[in-house]
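Recall that a protein's primary structure is simply its ordered list of amino acids. Everything else, from secondary elements to tertiary packing, is in principle encoded there. The following example makes that idea concrete.
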Amino acid sequence: MSNINQPTFFHLTILYIVLSSLYFMGFKSLLPLSINLTHKQSEHSIIIDLITLFVGCLSFWYSIILIFRFIIRRILSYTDWIFDNPKSPSFKTKLWRLSSKMFLNPTDQKLYDFQTYLPKFPLQKLDKTVSKYLLSVKPLLSKEEFDRHEELSLKFLQREGLELQKALVSRHKSTDNYVSQYWEDFAYLTAGRQTIDPTDDTSPNPGLMLNVSVSLHCPFGTPQDFRQASRAASISHLQMCYRHFVQTEKFPPFTLAGTSVPLCSEQYRRLYNTTRRACREPIDQIMCYPSAMNGYIVVYSKGRYYKVDCYTNGKLVSPKQLEKTFLTILADNSPVSEAERMLPSFTAGDRAVWGNFRDKYLSSGQNQENMRYVDECAFVLVLDTEERYFGKVS
C-alpha cells in the first residue's frame, strides 16, 4: 500500500492485462464498462470493446490516484499531534498515527515523491497575526512604548491590514507557499544591494543581514602532516557522489525525527550547479543549470581559476585522481594577472555595483565564457595557500 500513492503506468498496464484476459475468457459481466453486444461478434467490435475497456481502466486508475492524494494531503494537514501528550494522545491523533503507517512510508519513496502531496502553507487570520506580534514585542518594550504599539496595531487592523490580508488570501489560493517567494525576493536576493555608511543615520536599510552563502569547510582537527590535496579530493568525491544521489533521487524523503511525516525537499534541487547572480536592479537572480551537462568543479588557488572535470567516460573520477590534479594545481606558480586575482573582491561589495561591472566587462567574448564556467559548475573549491590548523575549542 505504501507505493499506491505513486502509481505508474506499470500498474495501469497490469490492470488492463487482467481485465482484457477476463474479457477474452468470457467473463464480460464481471468487467466494469463492459459492452454487451447484440450483433454478431466481429474483429471491429472486439477492438471497440478493448478501447472502451482501456478508457475505463484509465479512469479507474486516475480516480485511485486522486483519492489517495486527497487522503495523504489530509493526513499531512493534521498538526494537533504536535501538541498532544505522546503518552496519552487523543483519539484523532491515534487515528492519524494509524493512517500514517498505512499510507506514508517514506523509505519506499524517492526524494521528491511527496512534493505534490504536501499541504499548503497555512495563512493565519489577521487578528491572530497582530496579537502574536504584540505578544512577541511586549518583553522588549516599556509600558508606554507597548501602549503605542497596541494603538498602532489596532489602526492597522482597521485600515491597511484589511487590504494586505485580502492580497495574501488571493495569493494563498494560487500557490502552495505564499511566503517563499516573498522571502527569497525581499530577504535573500535583496540583501547586500546597498552600501551602508555606519556613521550616517540616513543610510538606506539593506534588508536583513543574513549569512546566505552556502559553503563547506572541514577542519577535522587533523594532524598537520595530513595533506590539503588529499582532504580536498575526499570531500570533492563525496560531494559529487551526494550530488549524483540527489540527481537520481536515491534518497528517501527526509522526515521529522521519530515520525513518517515528510519534509519539503524542494531546495535540494539547488544544492549544486546553482548560483546567485548579481544584477543591476532590482534584485539578484537564482540561476540553476542542468546537472547532467555540468559535471565539473571550479578550483580557486593563488588567484587562479581551474576547471576540473569530475567524470571520465561517464564515470566519476576517483579520489586518488582528484588528489593528483589538486597537487598539480597547488604546485602551479605561473604568473597570474592582477585582474583575475582581484575579481572575487567584487562579490563582497554592493551587489548593484558588481552586477553593473559584470554586465559591462564580463558579458561577451572570453570573459563571458570564463564566467559561464564558474556560474554553471557543481561547486567552487578553494585551496588555501596559507596553512591553518583548527584545534579544539576550550
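The two ends are 52 Å apart (CA to CA). Strands lie at 274-277, 285-288, 296-301, 304-309, 311-312, 315-316, 380-382.
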